[in-house]
Amino acid sequence: xxxxxxxxxxxxxxxxxxxxxxxxxxxxxxxxxxxxxxxxxxxxxxxxxxxxxxxxxxxxxxxxxxxxxxxxxxxxxxxxxxxxxxxxxxxxxxxxxxxxxxxxxxxxxxxxxxxxxxxxxxxxxxxxxxxxxxxxxxxxxxxxxxxxxxxxxxxxxxxxxxxxxxxxxxxxxxxxxxxxxxxxxxxxxxxxxxxxxxxxxxxxxxxxxxxxxxxxxxxxxxxxxxxxxxxxxxxxx
Amino acid sequence: xxxxxxxxxxxxxxxxxxxxxxxxxxxxxxxxxxxxxxxxxxxxxxxxxxxxxxxxxxxxxxxxxxxxxxxxxxxxxxxxxxxxxxxxxxxxxxxxxxxxxxxxxxxxxxxxxxxxxxxxxxxxxxxxxxxxxxxxxxxxxxxxxxxxxxxxxxxxxxxxxxxxxxxxxxxxxxxxxxxxxxxxxxxxxxxxxxxxxxxxxxxxxxxxxxxxxxxxxxxxxxxxxxxxxxxxxxxxx
Lengths: 237, 237
Known about the structure:
The structure is a homodimer. By secondary structure, chain A is an alpha/beta fold.
């Protein structure tokens, strides 16, 4: 289902990463279960991810100074390890587990979809993940970004307008020449409020097959696509 | 000619861009001459580049606020157009000419050299050029960066230590795990003072064949290589 093609095609496509490009739920669940066989990996992954928004709010409120997502992930990890009764992990094991967020696999359509989209657009990340994390992830998973942009560049997390408008400023474009591509309506709404075009990507299994996600379209988005291959079709790539 | 292989190989190779990766002199000279056939393209390119360091000093001294290199290039361009008697260019022509810095060609060894180096290292830019410029250049010239880092990320120009140490911080590494690769001894000396490894690349024609450059080795560098293919040989890539 598509809205009409906008008259002004976006020059830059900026992608949300966790959930939109990579499958964090399966990746984290798999790594936790490999390290701690008795644990429910799915529940552990959901708990870890649930701690993410409150932790970022602590930074944005000023309670914490500017903090990389790697370090926020570690703060949350300490809390949920205790909750799940996993108090005997070594420091090395904890560091390795925390880096599981660097080792997430892309959804099956992603590498082919990005490669097609890159042929006619500049493609970049716009993630709250830090630059090092996004670079390691891209190298491991062969994600063909033209450029890695992050909250770390703008010193603000999404949905702060400084992030969406920052992409336009980096490329010396009007906001309407940039499109945010994301699987989350709140992220897209914040980008739209800044004047960006928006593309919603369905990721019904983002939270695992036991927790299907609402993937209803919002007609306010410029595009609604099943995956990145469908978005490439929509954009004529 | 090589110094011994260091015991601690660098995980990240950060590359200076103008002169080290791309041939700014030929590129600018060619574009100026195409636009203004009567002008000495080589002299124009040298004058434009000569304005670069003083312009950055005006920013770092606080006389100018933080300014992207695209905008510094434009400030300098206005001065040298007058000096070369080219006062009849249209605004569109000036904007196009200013973007010639986005359209520079790599030296012949670069794409193959970077591709080999990328197989065993994370490769990124560390340039005073802005992110948009470096992204456009990489896309046009197929430079396979893992990540584009720039003065724009660190809000400081090289040789400010914040830039060299910023690369280490982004990747959560010790300075000695990062190597600056550059064709300029002053850039390398500043990186070395921050604890980075350094590799000097010979680019004898950086200023044009009429102005050969001193490419004498400095034994303080970790490596001295003819080009990026030789550096890949040195690093076992």
